[in-house]
Amino acid sequence: MLKLGHIVYSNCFPPHAGIVLKKVPFPFTLVEGIPTRLNRMLAEGAIDVSPSSSIEFAANRGRYMLLPDLSITSKARVMSILLESAVPIVELHDKVVAMTTASATSIVLLRILLEIRFGVNPRYISYEQGAEDPFGSADAMLTIGDLAIRRASTSRFAYQYDLGDLWHTFTGLPFVFALWQVNYRKNIHKDLERLYDILMESKAYGTTNLQELAGMTTDRFNLPATVLFEYWNLFSYAFSDEERKGLLAFYGYAAEINAIEPVTDLIIWARS
Q1: How does pLDDT run across 21-72, given as a tens digit for each residue?
Q2: 19 three-state secondary structure
Q3: What domains, with CATH codes, occur in the chain?
Q4: Distance between CA atoms of 223 and 128, rounded to whole angstroms?
């Protein structure tokens, strides 16, 4: 039975809403998790397809194919990738920056912005968000997901930076946080065709009912409906030319800081 990963953060909900809410028949298995857990399961073959951190595709070249027409992409501001800092970002050189272990892509994005855009080289440490709080032991900290949205109004740090906004100001491009990646085996091709059609139907349902979904899911995500509706409208869930340009720009900068080997092409799944 084919297994589809589902990121538990609210940014993944619109394209999977039809599946999660059983508005679309789904004969497969849905597996929930945070991005790093789903990345690991996809690599191990424990799931077959998942919205997975965009850096994973680059770090595992040749292992995955990308489903067309699907991504989690911020058009500019993103709200859920937050750098909180005790000092202005340009003063973080040789300071301690705590990086959440929950997302590989956001860590590389922050490094690009700090090291290339602002020319600073901090000392990085890791922490488990939701279980650890590096306030007091770090000069800045990176938080992602719904927790980052909630933290924005309660931060004890003097400065806050939205990484989607910083990236767009730097490049003029959207930022692709996740792609639907396939740990491809020939014997899943027919199931994959069926899953792709279901995903397209689910995405169409979700993206055309954002306001209704926001009202239905305030308890699920512990966020007000107005915040969810605003948040979801910051995203593109497509994977068109503009998203691909943003993705390849990210890969170019990631290679510049030696986070990955250079990526020059994208392997896109196509129906037989």
Answers
A1: 999 999 999 999 988 899 999 999 999 999 999 999 999 888 899 999 999 9
A2: helix
A3: 3-74+175-256 (3.40.190.10), 81-171 (3.40.190.10)
A4: 21
